[in-house]
Amino acid sequence: AAxxxxxxxALDATEFVRVFTNELQYxxxxxxxxxxxxxxxxxxxxxxxxxxxxxxxATQARQAEQNGKTVAYxxxxxxxxxxxxxALLSTGLEDTAREALSTLDIDLDELIAHEIExxxxxxxxxxxxxxxxxxxxxxxxxxIGYGIRYNYGIFRQTFVNxxxxxxxxTWMSHGTPWEITHPELAQPIGFAxxxxxxxxxxxxxxxxxxxxxxxxxxxxxxxxxxxxxxxVNTLRLWSARAADEFNLxxxxxxxxxxxxxxxxxxxNISNVLYPEDSTPQGKELRLQQQYFFVxxxxxxxxxxxxxxxxxxxxxxxxxxxxxxxxxPVVGIPELxxxxxxxxxxxxxxAWSITREIFNYTCHTLLPEALEVWPVDLFxxxxxxxxxxxxxxxxxxxxxxxxxxxxxxxVRQMSIIQEQPFRAVRMAHLATVGSRRVNGVAAxxxxxxxxxxxxxxxxxxxxxxxxxxxxxxxxxxxxLSNPELSDLLNDAIGTGWVRDLSQLSQLEPLADDSGxxxxxxLVKAHNKSRIAAVLAARxxxxxxxDAIYDVMVKRLHEYKRQSLKLLHxxxxxxxxxxxxxxxxxxxxxxxxxxxxxAPGYRMAKETIALINAVxxxxxxxxxxxxxxxxxFPANYNVTLAEKLIPAADLSEQISLAxxxxxxxxxxKFALNGALTVGTLDGANVEIHELVGDENFFLFxxxxxxxxxxxxxxxxxSKFYEKDADLKLAIDLIASGxxxxxxxxxxESIVSDWLWHDRFMALADFRSYxxxxxxxxxxxxxxxxxxxxxxxxxxxxxFFSSDRSIQDYLDRIWMEK
Length: 815
Ligand code: 26W
What we know:
Elements: H1 13-28, H2 37-66, E1 70-74, E2 78-79, H3 84-91, H4 94-103, H5 108-114, E3 119-120, H6 124-138, E4 143-148, E5 156-160, E6 163-167, E7 180-181, E8 187-191, E9 194-199, E10 205-210, E11 213-225, E12 232-242, H7 248-252, H8 256-267, H9 284-307, H10 315-318, E13 319-324, H11 331-342, H12 347-357, E14 358-361, E15 372-374, H13 375-381, H14 383-404, H15 407-413, E16 416-417, E17 423-425, H16 426-433, E18 436-439, H17 442-452, H18 454-459, E19 464-466, H19 473-479, H20 482-492, H21 513-538, E20 547-552, H22 561-577, E21 588-593, H23 601-617, E22 627-630, H24 637-643, E23 649-652, H25 664-670, E24 674-677, H26 683-690, E25 696-697, H27 702-711, H28 715-721, H29 723-733, H30 746-754, H31 760-779, H32 781-793, H33 800-812
Parallel strand pairs: 1-4, 1-13, 4-12, 13-14, 14-18, 18-19, 20-21, 20-23, 21-22, 23-24, 24-25
Antiparallel strand pairs: 2-3, 5-6, 7-11, 8-11, 9-10, 11-12, 15-17, 16-17
The chain binds ligand 26W.
Ligand 26W binds at residues 122-125, 128, 274, 276-278, 280, 325, 363-364, 369, 440, 469, 659-663, 681.
């Protein structure tokens, strides 16, 4: 039913078969009986790409003709997820492809499952970029995404004896049919070298950068189809290729081996995505990656805009660069260098153009996540850019000094930090060089103004704004939850896929018992589906009639996976202690999905502890099968699409004031899960919209947590005074989950008692109490289902289409 009202297919089944077999024969060189799944998958993709490429070319012609403003999204990460389903949806070809392939005895779903997803991102920030380019295309906005085509994306997680072991993500080992690469359009990107005094073409003294070495940036294009519209935008990812002139002198000197080594060094730039999420390591290669993609992107778009006859002064009317966190911020001095050194504009003119073109989105609140680059490293790699940053800083600080006369303020706002080492503060550079700065949820934007960037917001109150994150309803409802989509289409029509605010029309159906039953059937279906997936993928056996309680996100202390674990352990400990009857536990499946940064010790130990607890409780006779932990390895977008629609309960339990927004929280609510959450990030807005009766709120507020920290937080006091907490921690400390080895999880236990930076112990009691309320409500099926439907009906706000409209209104087209 879902397909009835959707885009009309560009091909019929007969034509589809013809093109598909043609692709098999002439691009794969195989007959149908010879064809492998890989051959068939590629032929399928190439068939679906045809109508998209037609639309893509028309889009480019249309956008060039309109000569309007182009939004360039600069992001080091795009966590795209699998492409096939989305392309079939956008072309309206899903039914046609299924029918056509079945006449050839090919199962479409098997080919869809064959795809290895491009995991070119770590987590929320990368997935947000992917949702945003989807919405930009769907809303017919002239936009281009720029980033890096990593050879290896986010690592593949495996568990060995419960411990995380990382494997390289070889997503490109068989190539990818989605990419259109143009090596002939490569541009040279310089690094290192020296800066010289020179005379420009007007006879004026000037500075000139003479790079020490070059690498070629090769554009790799991906199509970004809108839904229900003709627009197909571009995602342009840059791949590093050694430049021929790269080390010519070495080669000329006859040192062939070193010449080859030098090429490998250059091509290393786009080889691997850094798996650190929130703690930048200050590695030189990372700064190389950042400059590499940003320099190529800016030159690409500026050159194309100037070629259309746009004047320098008018560039801000034709281009806006959105900086996705600080990773692309080196674009600010790069545009200055381009305008001043290469195009010979006056400094002041270049600076006013630059400050009009860039906007900066901040995605964090943790001070350790703010990037800083040691000045010596920066100056070695980008000597001219460092000079430019110094001049920007000098002029900016002179202005602050003049306006405020406050030397303390001058030091605090400086783009250069002096202690503990001299370094470029990228968030300060971004704020000084941008027209608008935004946070990603209402609370986060407020906290940016109050804490992280407070001097800047006092200085430029109008520069700061909020755009609450969103998620694409195409991938995270329509594609991932076909049964719910059918139910919604029957109830309110199909308009919700492009206008998610229409979900509010469901509101009256929350009191329609027939509708609630159908809704419950959809959820039950999705639970069976994920149980089957996890059985096949990970060998995990799960009941399908239980509360599906899901916590999926990067493993980080501030997100507090350990709090979820303490809840589970405390139930088990109480059953062992005889203070809780297993029969009184509402059957529950707790699903974790989480990767830890490879160098993050505490996160990795938490993974080992979750796996150890799972191994014990999943087979504990005392629990009578009422409590299960599933921790499938390698949580990614592909798995998320199966897991989220099955969830009853969404765990969003970060310490208030630490999670900038969260976006998983939105995906769960839109699929009818109830949230158990703190007043953090976008949870605040979800709670407000769905209403307190339909949300399990617990824990300290941000001001509570701040005062507790000020008063001196002593976690062991909470341990001493809460018998259930003590029982749970003591059970872990006793070695119950490590074959009696009391040392196995000692560092986690002692961290809980003596540090607990994110105050899990302080929120434990409140969390346990709310989980009791969860069980009570779940027993009242009608009440639960009513709340679940109201979550769907009231969260249409969290479409990334709405976020993009806010970016247009508040940032890109503002004024
Ligand atoms: C290694 C340096 C580094 C630093 C920060 C890498 C990645 C980051 C990101 C800011 C981490 C991140 O993904 N932040 C998340 O962004 C999401 C989209 O706005 C938010 O929903 C999450 O709350 C935020 O943690």
